[in-house]
Amino acid sequence: MATSAMARQTVFALRQEIxxxxxxxxxxxxxxxxxxxxxxxxxxxxxxxxxxxxPTPAGxxxxxxxxxxxxxxxxxxxxxPRAALSEICAAATRDAAAAAGFALALAARAAQAPDAALPxxxxxxxxxxxxAGAPYAPGLLRLFALPPERLALCTVxxxxxxxxxxxxxxxxxxxxxxxxxxxxxxARLGLTATRRLQRRAAAxxxxxxxxxxxxxxxxxxxxLRLAVAPAPxxxxxxxxxxxxxxxxxxxxxxxxDKSPAARPATFVLHWNPDERAFEERRPEISRPVVPAPAERxxxxxxxxxxxxxxxxxxxxx
Length: 317
Known about the structure:
Elements: H1 2-21, E1 39-42, E2 45-48, E3 64-65, H2 70-75, E4 80-81, E5 85-90, H3 96-111, E6 120-125, H4 126-132, H5 137-144, E7 151-156, H6 159-172, E8 177-183, H7 191-204, E9 208-213, E10 224-230, E11 236-238, E12 241-243, E13 251-258, E14 265-272, E15 277-280, H8 303-316
Parallel strand pairs: 5-9, 5-10, 6-7, 6-8, 8-9
Antiparallel strand pairs: 1-2, 3-4, 10-13, 11-12, 13-14, 14-15
């Protein structure tokens, strides 16, 4: 009898651990417990007993990292998984700034959480920062409200070193978010390496953002993969209305490529530096880019009318 009870407890603890590794909320299953007992400890893990309904786990409100855009968050089931590895891909090197900016905005939102007043770690090979550009402290402070003292930058010589640093940093739990950026295909970036990153992120409860530039999608253990590209900025809004010819806040075309909670979809999001959140942008009404010439006050007749008159003249002749 004691052996059977211990076996059930072990299986239950393993299922809870698998749920955490996969980045999804644990399944609160019925577990036999003595009368009046609310919880038991099995191999260091606390097992809760369901009594009529599923209990609300501690920290459930912060299980998701909200972007601020309601439609995008709703498609992801409430936002990005906070305690998980998320993959952010850019199809070409020219889109590197968009992918890195999108990931940094998410990391800045993670750093705003009251329970995560910690710095953000940005990891990348030295040649990547030399090609795509290094972080600019005044811009990070103005756009993301991220002061320089809360951003730690780590440059490495090789890509596999970046993965090792990311794994160790994610397991330390000393950062609000860990952002690791790679260019091209990394030989050691696969299911094994990303499983380790996913496991460290789940154990620490902090997001790990894997930014990949100019790399084709390949199997990873990240439960979420987003494809990010730059989008045209909207006009700058003023008290008098939209300012013609101006450039508004940064805009991103974000496609959900892989997600356990959403179908493939594309959103156009722009970053609001004042609210420090993303906002979904609706398609604007198209308008002519080139103004009509001043010497033509009247619009030309429709092409169909001219064509009809031409045919009539030919028939008459």
